[in-house]
Model the fold of this input.
Amino acid sequence: MIGADRVGVDPLTEYFDASMMSVSSLTDYNITKERYEAYLETPIKERELFEPFNGVVFADSGGFKFLNNAEIDGSDFEVTMNQETVYDIQKALGSDIIVNLDHPIAPGDSHQERVQKAEQTAENIHEFLNLTRDFEGAKYLTLHGYNYSMMTEFLEVITNEVPLGVLQEGFDGIALGSLVPKKDNRDALIKAVTDCREVMNDWGFENWPLHVLGIASRAIPILTALGADSFDSSTHLHNAINGKYNRSMMEQVPLDDVDFTECDCPICQSDLLVDRMRGNTEYQKDVLGPVAMHNLIVQKRELADLRQCIKQDGTDALIEYLEETFSRDKTMRQYAHKVVNQSLGGYF
Ligand SMILES: [Zn+2]
Done:
């Protein structure tokens, strides 16, 4: 990966197989028009800095900025943010997976507000499909709702504008949004993902991948067991920023307490990077960068193990994984049991 040669580790390409970015991140820094244009001049993967990166770029539409009326604001760089602009940006970044511009719902929205947002999203979807006819990557349809009936109603509104057959033909996956305000509410997440898979079955999207937008790593094992295929968690970074080193997906320890010899990942096997993680370097980024990378590797390895358990015949392997993962975590354990009971036909 980037700079790998300078720190003497092999490129970590297998752990950087996909990365997520958002159109709205361009609007976060009060950048000027010149800066904005310069940024979009060269697709990400064609820039020298990212030259060895060959993974997938998933560009979110930034629709979550509409949440709580915090509109995406392109005024700093004199751009009107709408479906067309968002797609132009996604294209300019060299994205492989894109989503339509959406209007996520908020927990306090009235029924009328939710319907209105679905109608606005429907208009965008219509335009998105027209604009993206020649796009060669994958297109994910945003879906909003906390439960079966809300998601069904969302799709009913959408299909008033765009016929179901056109949706099925035009898109390749579902991106489930609006869950960020509920990210710490395990019950709500479990319900949303379980119901989403049901809705996908009932609307003819059963073979599509399901991406859950903005959910942190602690919920990942359970949501994966329920049928979510991808996530855009940044927990590995945030843990590192807070000086936390992941022992497993669920367990972190303070960086000062770590015995690096216990981990066999390429980061902890590097004398130079271990030395930096111990604080023997000038810049904080050189201490925390390797920690973030180690955290990501731990998460991705564990997720790969979990997927192996899911692929196996029968449910024994998955049950054993969930038992082991959550046995010392009382709060999560009850949800793990609930998942097993709901989706695997009962066990506890
Ligand atoms: Zn490690």
